[in-house]
C-alpha cells in the first residue's frame, strides 16, 4: 500500500457502524456509507490525476 492509496473501512461500534476513509495518516469518519464511498471515489480520482466530468466526451475540441 502506498501513501496515495485511499482506503474505505467499516468500523462497528456499540452505537452503530461508522465508515472510515483513510489516506496515509489522515482519516475521516462518516456515519453514511454512501457519503463515505462518494468521498473516497472523488479523492481517489483527484489523487490519480484523472479529470472528473459530468459530461462524457468533454476532452475533445469542439467541432472535431
String of helices and strands: EEEH
Largest sheet: 3 strands, antiparallel
Structural class determined from secondary elements: alpha+beta
Distance between the termini: 41 Å
Overall 3D geometry? flat
> What order do the strands of the largest sheet run in, or round the barrel if closed?
1-2-3
Question: What percent of residues adopt helix (DSSP H or I)?
Answer: 10-25%
Number of strands: 3
Q: Return residue spans where pLDDT drops below 50 for at least 5 consecutive residues.
A: none
Quaternary structure state of the chains depicted = single chain
**How many helical stretches?**
1
Strand content: 25-35%
What does the average pLDDT come to? 83
How many whole angstroms does the radius of gyration measure?
16 Å
Task: List the defining traits of the structure above.
single chain; 64 residues; alpha+beta; three-stranded antiparallel β-sheet; 23% helix
Structure characterization notes:
A hairpin with a 2-residue loop joins strand 2 (16-23) and strand 3 (26-30). This protein has a domain at 6-47. It has one helix at 33-47, and strands at residues 6-13, 16-23, 26-30. The chain is built from one helix and three strands. The chain has 64 residues and is α+β, with helices and mostly antiparallel strands.
Helix-strand blueprint:
Blueprint: E1 6-13, E2 16-23, E3 26-30, H1 33-47
Antiparallel strand pairs: 1-2, 2-3
Briefly say what this structure is.
This protein has 64 residues and is an alpha+beta fold. Helices cover 23% and strands 33% of the residues. The chain has a 3-stranded antiparallel sheet, with helices on one face.
Amino acid at each position: 500500500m502506498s501513501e496515495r492509496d485511499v482506503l474505505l473501512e467499516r468500523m462497528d461500534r456499540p452505537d452503530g457502524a461508522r465508515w472510515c476513509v483513510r489516506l496515509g495518516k489522515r482519516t475521516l469518519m462518516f456515519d453514511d456509507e454512501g457519503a463515505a464511498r462518494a468521498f473516497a471515489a472523488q479523492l481517489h480520482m483527484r489523487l490519480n490525476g484523472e479529470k472528473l466530468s459530468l459530461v462524457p466526451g468533454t476532452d475533445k475540441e469542439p467541432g472535431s
